[in-house]
């Protein structure tokens, strides 16, 4: 029997441990799968073969940072949850669906960079739509957890606040980059890399630490 001060919402919550373990597993597998597409490109000398594989290296770095940024934001969100409900679990599955799919368009981009412009347009478009879906689903998770009062009442997590501040900008930027990719695929790849760095690096925190130390000195 529920306690007298237990609200229906609180009583309906489930533990978050299994969801966090499952989510971390999916993210870890997705980020690990990226390295499987790294391979040398014969024929030629060892040096030629190594450097000929540069498209795979580029795609790997961009996707590694993208999934890494998603993991940081997801960890910060779930760490603050009191628990989860059945709707949150299903929304989280949709988020993981997009994450788990990302190694496929990553490989498309790597292969397209060795083909022609038509392949590049297709690859960067699929890639961009996948990342945009990932960011949209994370925004839905944040919004749902806030409106359903699933999060703990304590000081905001710096990484979660950073992700929230960047959310609107990145959604618009990814949408615009998809359009750019239809015209200039190579430029779109540069933009995807820049956005991945933007999401991973906490520029505000880094600046505060650097300037704070200088003032203290």
Point out poorly predicted stretches.
1-8
Work out the radius of gyration: 20 Å
Mean pLDDT: 86
Strand segment count: 0
Main beta-sheet strand count, sense and barrel state:
none
Quaternary: single chain
Shape: globular
* Elements, N to C (H/E): HHHHHHHHHH
Please count the helical segments. Answer: 10
CATH architecture: Up-down Bundle
CATH class: Mainly Alpha
Tell me the CATH topology: I/LWEQ domain
Whole-number count of domains? 1
Work out the strand percent. Answer: under 5%
Helical fraction: over 70%
| Beginning-to-end CA distance, first to last residue | 59 Å
Using brief descriptors, characterize the structure shown.
mainly alpha; I/LWEQ domain; 10 helices; globular
Can you give a write-up of this model?
By secondary structure, the protein is an all-alpha fold. It has one domain: I/LWEQ domain. The chain has ten helices and no strands. Helix 5 packs antiparallel against helix 7. The protein is globular. The N terminus is likely disordered.
Helix and strand topology:
Blueprint: H1 8-12, H2 17-33, H3 46-52, H4 54-79, H5 86-101, H6 103-112, H7 117-147, H8 158-183, H9 185-200, H10 203-216
Summarize the structure.
With 217 residues, the protein is mainly alpha-helical.
């Amino acid at each position: 029997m529920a306690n007298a001060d237990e609200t229906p919402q609180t009583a309906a919550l489930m533990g978050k441990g299994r969801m966090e373990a499952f989510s971390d597993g999916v993210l870890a597998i997705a980020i690990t799968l990226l390295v499987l597409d790294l391979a040398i490109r014969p024929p030629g000398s060892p040096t030629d073969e190594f450097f000929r594989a540069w498209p795979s290296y580029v795609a790997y770095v961009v996707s590694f940072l993208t999934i890494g940024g998603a993991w940081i934001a997801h960890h910060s969100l779930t760490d603050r949850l009191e628990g989860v409900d059945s709707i949150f679990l299903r929304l989280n599955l949709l988020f993981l669906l997009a994450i788990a799919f990302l190694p496929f368009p990553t490989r498309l981009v790597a292969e397209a960079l060795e083909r022609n412009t038509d392949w590049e347009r297709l690859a960067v478009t699929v890639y961009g739509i996948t990342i945009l879906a990932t960011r949209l689903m994370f925004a839905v998770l944040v919004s749902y957890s806030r409106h359903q009062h699933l999060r703990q009442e304590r000081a905001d997590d710096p990484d979660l606040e950073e992700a929230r501040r960047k959310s609107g900008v990145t959604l618009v930027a990814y949408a615009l980059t998809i359009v750019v990719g239809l015209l200039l695929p190579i430029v779109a790849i540069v933009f995807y890399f820049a956005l991945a760095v933007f999401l991973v690096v906490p520029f505000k925190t880094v600046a505060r630490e650097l300037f704070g130390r200088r003032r203290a000195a």
